[in-house]
Specification:
seven-stranded mixed sheet, alpha/beta, four-stranded parallel sheet, elongated, 14% strand, 2 domains, 405 residues, 11 strands, Rossmann fold
């Protein structure tokens, strides 16, 4: 029976998934393997009504540059009792290629160990993806999808900034990102936005709704002093992950709550929440300054891959074959700064609890310091006299004081 390679995708979409599928499929077809895809990730893999996609060169050629994912995705995380060997043995599977984040990778490891324990030896190689850029890959190497998502975010933010200038308004943008603010920072830097707020900025103080609002107001008033009554602030939605439940509840937003009493943030537009916080702060000073919310979330995930990701995903796809022929398994495929394919093992990037340690924005880097010191607009000591025209307690809106820098 012909040896088979299986590809599945887990988690949420990111630009470049189809490029990876296409690159993996082409190289293995060329080497004589059968290549199949599984729809709906792990849910589909262990379903009795599994939907299989047989790949050929024509299909793979047609999806190479497309956004989204040709293989339907799922966040389903199987439990051990879901596992079975039948699909792998009946299809003579030799390699399981998984595309996703750290959860998808850790589940693939569990499956590989289960199969090995049941005398079914297949290799597993994971292709890490996220637009958040928070996986601990080799230094200087972004996760695939990040640059394309950033490009689309920049396109929207540039248009929004032009609208702000034309209409003399302020816009509050919220960008995706869990614990790390790479996407918000990257978009803000590229667009010269006067205020960028990411979780990493609060390394010397706690994150709160009040501080977030004060940072934006600080920028608004600074720009007024400079003679500009417009602007845009971008905030990483990851700040919510560090706010206390009480602080979130006290925002006054009507959240829904899960079985454990935690706010279900995914049901709410983060930009609307941020804009509301800023509005309340402005109105407390009788300042008639409007803010408009703009969400940079799902709009970015299925954009077409940019040239950078087309090249990176091609390298990663071909790299799967390279690592497979070298005998590697239960690893992630990565590319270093020299363009060399290297394996990265989960145990090397996990903490003592088995959680992958996220790659955060380096606040000590020259790039970040340059943006924070020279690119943003916020109140400083020399602005206090002018700022008091708008804010009687303007000293509470000093950028460095808010962040305890």
């Amino acid at each position: 029976m012909q040896e088979t390679v299986v590809i599945l995708c887990g988690g949420g979409p990111a630009p470049g998934i189809n490029t990876v599928i296409s690159s993996v499929g082409k190289v293995f077809l060329r080497e004589g393997y059968r290549v199949i895809g599984i729809h709906e990730g792990y849910k589909g893999l262990f379903s009795e009504k599994r939907i299989i996609q047989e790949f050929n060169f024509e299909i793979l050629d047609s999806i190479f540059t497309q956004g989204g994912s040709f293989l339907k995705m799922s966040r389903y995380k199987p439990i051990d009792s879901d596992f079975s060997t039948s699909f792998f043995t009946s299809n003579n599977v030799k390699l399981l290629v998984t595309i996703g984040g750290d959860d998808t990778a850790s589940t693939a490891n569990r499956i590989s160990k289960y199969l090995h324990a049941n005398s079914v030896d297949i290799a597993n190689i994971h292709v890490p993806k996220t637009i958040d850029n928070d996986l601990p890959l080799p230094k200087g190497i972004p996760t695939f999808g990040f640059n394309s998502a950033k490009n689309e975010g920049v396109r929207i933010a540039v248009t929004v900034s032009e609208d702000a200038k034309t209409s003399q308004n302020w816009f509050i943008l919220a960008a995706m990102g869990r614990e790390a603010g790479h996407l918000a920072f990257g978009i803000g830097e590229a667009c010269h936005l006067p205020m960028i707020i990411i979780p990493e900025m609060f390394h010397r103080t706690t994150i709160s709704a009040d501080k977030i609002a004060r940072l934006v107001v600080s920028s608004i008033i600074k720009r007024r002093i400079m003679g500009m009554n417009y602007g845009a602030a971008i905030i990483s939605e990851g700040v919510f992950h560090f706010m206390s439940s009480d602080d979130i509840k006290n925002t006054g937003i009507n959240f829904t709550y899960d079985a454990h009493g935690h706010p279900e943030l995914f049901n709410v537009s983060k930009s609307h929440v941020f804009s509301m916080l800023v509005q309340r702060k402005l109105k407390s000073y009788q300042l008639d300054i409007g803010t408009r919310p703009v969400e940079l979330g799902f709009e970015l995930r299925c954009s077409s891959p940019a040239a950078f990701d087309l090249s990176l995903c091609t390298q990663l796809g071909n790299g799967v074959y390279t690592l497979f022929k070298q005998g590697f398994s239960r690893c992630m495929v990565t590319v270093n700064s020299q363009g060399n394919i290297i394996p990265l093992f989960l145990e090397d990037v996990e903490d003592s609890f088995g959680k992958v340690v996220p790659r955060l924005v380096d606040m000590d880097s020259n790039e970040v310091k340059s943006v924070m010191n020279y690119g943003l607009h916020y109140l400083c000591e020399e602005d206090l006299a002018s700022a008091k025209k708008y804010l009687p307690d303007a000293e509470n809106y000093l950028f460095q004081k808010i962040l305890n820098w």
